[in-house]
Amino acid sequence: MLLPEAVDDYVGADNPVRFIDAFVDELDLSAAGFVRVAAKATGRPGYAPADLLKLYIYGYLNRVRSSRRLELESHRNIEVIWLLRSLKPDFKTIADFRRDNRAAFRSVFREFVLLCRRLDLYGRELLAVDGTRIKAVNNKDRNFTRNSLQDFIRAADERLDDYLRRLDEGDIEEGGTGDGARTKNLAEMIEALRQKRGRYGAMLAELERTGESQISLTDPDSRAMAAHTKVGVGYNIQIAVDAKNKMIVEQAVTNQVVDMGLLTQTAEPARAILDVENIDVVADRGYFKIEDIEACEKAGLTPHVPKPQRGSSVRNGFFRKDEFRYDPDQDVYICPAGETLSPHHEGKLRDLKKIDYSNPAACPACPLRSRCTTDRRRVSRLENEAVLDRMAARLKARPDILARRRETVEHPFGSIKQWMNQGAFLMKGLDNVRAEFSLTALVYNLRRALNILGVEAMMAAVRG
After folding, report:
1. Which of residues 239 and 45 earns the better pLDDT score?
2. DSSP class per residue in 65-118
3. I need a surface site. Which of 36, 68, 190, 295 has the fewest CB within 10 A?
4. What is the DSSP string of 243-296?
5. Same domain, 228 and 132
6. Rounded Cα gap, residues 54 and 134, in angstroms
């Protein structure tokens, strides 16, 4: 008699599950790309996509991503029972829904971003872009690069030669009969090794045919990531985060190992969905690529990316290129010793015109030569390097923007990996993984919005 008589009484007005229910009910699931939105006239009706979408959003919000665990929650969790109106889909139905509608989850994420934009949760002044690596369903022992395959084949050939030599010696010792136990064991080992070498050879031929740099056996789309990421084989996750409330505006998943070249394709869709003509974008030096930075400026983005210190001069401890001042009026460089370096040679770098500047007469007698070069110092400049000069000036005027980038973009990654416990994907394949992370990014934003505005304000915005 002390328990409430209706399930609805167990779910308070400020329970996030009520917002999930209201938000999904207001979505146009057909336009979003969900299948089987309208029930067929004949046959037993399937589960409504809205109900299964609510279940997944609730599950990800509460760190429950497995279809089997979601099935269990629908039987024992009073909030899920209220949300699904006592429906109890089995794990196969739940898993098939995520797989069959993998492209539609991104549309739901974007709809929530638009809702947050209407609620002024985005400052629309500064975007921070960064990437992280999340483990795939593929052990590093089942990932092979060209070099590793070549090493395996070379080692297998050496072992085969050794086995064949020992087999011949065994034959001689046994009088050429080949019936000894040692000879039979060696023959079995040789056959197994030949089969293994054949598999390695087939994988290497496949890499040569496709032009790929590596191959994964369990999840073919996954790639071995850089060693410093501590993720053996996985995917590269890219996000653009608005600085006001550290909320994600755009997200993407790729199997490209490095971040270089991903700045514009991550930040430009974020600028478009925020509906601003120009916006500042900050990223770390891993995104430094002159073509990408130039593309940012053309797309209405103002990039702030620190230049990495690399090259032979940096490795040898000589003056860096940024210690040479460029004079655009005279088209010359002024070196640290005050000498003028003029254009002397023209070449190409990644289809860009490259000009080398030098002063052969000044270098031999220069008092700073030991700190600059061992022969004659040359400084190269690309045809569009003015975009880097402009960016360097912006970074000098706003030295705090890099620290702001770190505190902005590391918050979502920390929350996703620690609070949401999502350090690995559950599904295989790039399209499936993208669906998973769309749900992850949606739920991260949902949690942030609910913490800032509260359930009742969010529900009023949805229904208003």
Report:
1. 239
2. --HHHHHHHHHH-HHHHHHTTT----HHHHHHHHHHTTTTHHHHHHHHHHHHHH
3. 68
4. TTTTEEEEEEEE--SS-TT-HHHHHHHHHHHHT-S-EEEE--GGG--HHHHHHH
5. yes
6. 25
For the segment 29-36, the average pLDDT, to the nearest whole number, is 90
403 and 264 in a common domain:
yes
d(CA 376, CA 358): 7
Structural domain containing residue 294 = 123-136+224-307+392-437
pLDDT digits (tens, 9 = 90+) for 280-334: 999 999 999 999 999 999 999 999 999 888 778 888 889 998 899 999 889 999 9
pTM of the entire structure?
0.87
Indicate which CATH number applies to the domain containing 295.
Answer: 3.30.420
C-beta separation of 391 from 293 below 8 A: yes
Q: Pairing between strand 301-304 and 279-282?
A: parallel
**What's the rounded Cα separation, in Å, for the pair 114 and 442?**
12
In a domain, 358, yes or no: yes
> Does residue 461 form part of some domain?
no
Q: How many domains does the chain fold into?
A: 4
| Ramachandran sector of residue 47 (left: φ over 0; alpha: ψ -120 to 50; beta: rest) | beta
The verdict on residue 109 lying in a domain is no
The single residue listed with the structure tokens 């996985």 is 234
Is the same domain home to 301 and 228?
yes
Angstrom distances, CA of residue 4 to CA of 78, 79, 375: 12, 14, 87
Q: Which residue has the tokens 């004949």?
A: 42
Q: Are residues 278 and 396 in the same domain?
A: yes
Angle of CA points 437, 259, 211, to nearest 5°: 95
Q: Is residue 110 part of a domain?
A: no
- Are residues 89 and 202 part of one domain? no
Same domain membership, residue 396 and residue 252: yes
Q: Which residue has the tokens 């088209």?
A: 331
Question: Tokens at residue 301, please?
Answer: 């983005």
Output DSSP code: residue 226.
Answer: P
Residue from 29, 23, 47 nearest 105 by CA: 29
- For residue 390, count other CB atoms closer than 10 A to its CB: 14
Sign of CA dihedral 30, 34, 37, 40: positive
How far is it, in rounded angstroms, from Cα 418 to Cα 72? 24
In whole angstroms, give the CA distance from residue 319 to residue 4. 76
198-228 per-residue burial string, b: 16 or more CB within 10 A, e: under 16? eebeebbeebeeeeeebbbeebebbbbbeee
